[in-house]
Amino acid sequence: MSSAAGSAQAQLQVFQDALERFRTDGLSAHDLSDLARGQSVLLAALPDKFSEVLHQLMDRLESSALFSEESCSFSQRDLVDSLQMWADKAAIRISNSPSA
After folding, report:
1. pLDDT tens digits for range 30-56
2. Closest Cα partner for 9 from 85, 94, 99, 87?
3. Burial 60-91 (b: 16+ CB within 10 A, else e)
4. 0.90 exceeded by pTM
5. CA angle, corner 63, sides to 90 and 54, nearest 5?
6. Which residues have a Cβ under 8 Å from the Cβ of 71 and sit 6 or more positions away?
7. CA distances from 82 to 36, 54, 91 (A)
8. Fewer CB within 10 A of the terminal residue: the chain, N end or C end?
């Protein structure tokens, strides 16, 4: 595995750990969003569409945190599930990349 792929994998693990902390109320939506958006090596290792999707999901998650579950059009549970799916697909993409 190249050092770039290793760094991307490490940043993906940091994101997945943060997502788990968010699930257990150990991390705020804003903090998760800041962390996710700051994973520059990970995002650079993935196609542009991954960044677009992640940013859209983070925007929705931050918006959902401003309202109670009942009054928000975005379900936090569904968003967390979508973020996990994003992370799973990112892991596959990184592990299948030619530089991995």
Report:
1. 999 999 999 999 999 999 999 999 999
2. 94
3. bbbebbeeeeeeeebebeebbebbeebbeebe
4. no
5. 15
6. none
7. 14, 9, 14
8. N
**Is pLDDT larger for residue 73 or for residue 31?**
31
Extract long-range pairs of 88-93: CB within 8 Å, 24+ residues apart: 89/50, 90/12, 90/42, 90/46, 90/50, 91/9, 91/12, 93/46, 93/47, 93/50
57's tokens? 């999901």
Cα 40 vs. chain centroid, distance in angstroms? Answer: 12
